Amino acid sequence: MTDFLYPFLGGSERGLEATLEHVAASTLDKGNDVAELRRGIDLEAVTACGLAIRDRLHRGGRLLAFGNGGSSTDAQDAAGDFLAAGWGAIALTNDAATITGVANDVGYDNVFSRQLIALARADDVALAFSTSGSSRNVVAGLEEAHRRLLLTCAVTGYGGGTLRELPWLDHLFVAAGDYIPRLQEAHATVVHLLLEVVGERS
Asked: For residues 194 and 179, which has the higher predicted lDDT (pLDDT)?
């Protein structure tokens, strides 16, 4: 059942040489999959989004990034990259006390929207990550960001999910696939391209 995730398991049954060949082939296949997803990124859309983000940041706004699970690390990585370039950025996934407190008191669906109520300013940018595009707390966070006039941006897979149905969402990037590890690698590429457009703070 887990062969597709861990192709090297069971190597003792096949022999070391066969296992190494299998791992090498798997690595090439994964590289090809990621390259194909990256070729599908709409560079014009990236440029438009990057310029819009840059405009907000130049006006004193900050990047507020969020997501669940592996997407939470995408959010942390994005915030770290923008901070390294000199821009204000916060990953709403970093504060375990806040997340668990909100989840316990008012429900997990509110862990990002409640933080946005407390932290967000109109010139800020909300950058959401959801491989399914339908995580309820991510959708709720973007809805709150929209109410507060933030620039709303999302990166997803699986055809876009619920996020594709939001008519007010300013920028949406959909990686055309359903294998989460490869999707998240494509999502990281979108962030790096956006930062290339935004540039470093002078």
From this structure: 194
